[in-house]
Each structure stands twice: as structure tokens, then as C-alpha cells.
Amino acid sequence: MKVKVLGIPVDLGANRRGVDMGCSAIRYANLQNGLEKIGYHVEDYGNLYVPNAEKIKIKKTSLKYAEEIIEVCERTAPLISKFMEEGFIPLILGGDHSISIGTIAGCSNALGDVGIIWFDAHGDFNTEETSPSGNIHGMSLGASLGYGDEMLVKVGGKKGKARPENVALIGVRDIDPKEAELIKESGINVFTIEQIDFMGMREIMELAINIASNGTKGIHVSFDMDVIDPSVAPGVGTPVQGGISYREAHLAMEMVANSKMLKCLEFVEVNPILDNKNRTAELAVSLACSALGKKII
Ligand SMILES: NC(=[NH2+])NCCC[C@H](N)C(=O)O
Ligand SMILES: [Mn+2]
Ligand SMILES: [Mn+2]
């Protein structure tokens, strides 16, 4: 039971500044202590170097900071693979959601076949052509599945990090029109917030875990804190009303732990500037503990 924590303080993929501080906020909320209490050996690698937005001129408004984000992701991928080969579960702290292009590449390279459960209010399936914002954090799931800019798609070496039938996108309620078409075309499994209301998180997670486990060597869980309702998780840059509850989020993580398939875990989009006394980071810590096996009794 070993966890290796890695901070990736990228905020270049999002419009609002401040998610780069997410990793510090999550560590400050006693992450290491919480994991040690449930029996983990925890090593903290520290943060990856990320260039400062103030020093960079945007070259392309349709793919903002692409060069820098790709460079960070290319450094991330081999590091994640290495942690996994050493027997650690990587626990990655964002940063905005663009970092997943690198983490998923690394996880996929280490495992060969990986399933992805992606929690998000958004689809993160835009491309340069469909994105209304040009922000790469809205493109990272699509890029991981082979859609979009060649350089983004090729991070870590191979195009298409998982089979679409092994991917579950959960909690979505804000998808751009052309993004929706791409999502449908891709064939990934989508569970909207409406379906969670209707079927309950338990059934959705049973399906999602099956989807992500079927024929794979393990599951990568990518957790965008904006999947949770903003009344519970206010410290995010792109909040959308009507998100999942505190307990639904925990139940989902508890079921991930029970599946014994978790190989790589990340929490992204925590923005301490917009938070209320660090409660969103504290929630990320308690969710991490649940995903890694913390039990009520
Ligand atoms: N990871 C996120 N919070 N993504 C938000 C994406 C918002 C919007 N769909 C866009 O592409 O700009
Ligand atoms: Mn996201
Ligand atoms: Mn989101």
C-alpha cells in the first residue's frame, strides 16, 4: 500500500488563474496525514516545474498555451509510469484538467490496457475547432482518446490511451454543442447528472466500474472537483449548478476502493482563490481517502 503524491501546478489550461495553487491547498488540508492514518506509506515527489503564465505570450487563441502544456504533459507521462512500475499508486494534484493528458498517457503506458472513470460537470471533449474558449482543460478527455491537435493527442507516444468502451464520463451537465457530437461519435459511455438523479449513484458506479474494468489491467480515476455541487465545492474555476452531493461523491469513491481496480488517481481544478476556507481542498482529501479505502468503521 504505497502512494506517491505529485503536484502539477498548471493553470495555463483554464481561463481563471489560481488552480496552480490547488496542489498546495490539498497538501495543506492534511493529505499525507489522512493517508498515513489509513495505513499507506506516502511519498511526496513535490511539484513539477511549470512555466509562469506571466512570462508567456499566447501564440494561438484557439489552443492557448499548447506548447507549454504539451511540454509539461510530456514530462508527466514517464514519471507516472515510473511510479506505477515501482508499485506506487500515483496521486496527482492539479492544476487544471489539462494535466490529465500527461497522467493518463503515463498510466496507459504502464498498464497497456486502462479504463478511465472521469468525473466532471463538463465533457472536456472539445478540439481546437469545437472549443468556445480555446482552453485546453476543456479538451483533455478528447485528446486522451485521440481527438484534436496532433501534438496533444500524441503525448506519451501513442494516440488513443484507452478504448472508448472502457471510458465512463460521469456527472456531466454542461457540454458545448459540437463537443456533444464528438462525444457521441467517440463511443465513450456517458452518465449525465440526469441519469444519476434517475438511477442513483450506486447503479451508475456499478456500471462505470464494469466498463472501466472489462478487459483492462486497472482504472485511472480523474476527478474534476466541479462535478460536485458548487454549494459544497465552491473553490473551482468553472462551477455549474446542480452537481452531485457530498455523499454521492464519497459513495462513488468508496465503490472505486471496493473494486480493487484503482491504479492511478487525480484531483483537479481546485482553485483556492475562489474557495471558502479551503473546504474544496479538504473535500478532495476526504475523497482521496475514500477512494484509497478509508472505511467509516
Ligand atoms: N476541466 C474543466 N473545468 N473544463 C471546463 C471546460 C469548459 C468549456 N466546455 C470549454 O471547453 O471551454
Ligand atoms: Mn474537467
Ligand atoms: Mn469541469
UniProtKB/TrEMBL annotation:
Mn(2+) 2 binds at residue 124. Signal peptide: none annotated. Mn(2+) 1 binds at residues 97, 120, 122, 224, 226. Keywords: Arginine metabolism, Hydrolase, Manganese, Metal-binding. One of its GO terms (cellular component) is cytoplasm. The keyword 4Fe-4S does not apply. One of its GO terms (molecular function) is arginase activity. GO terms for biological process: arginine metabolic process; urea cycle. PANTHER family: ARGINASE. This is Arginase.
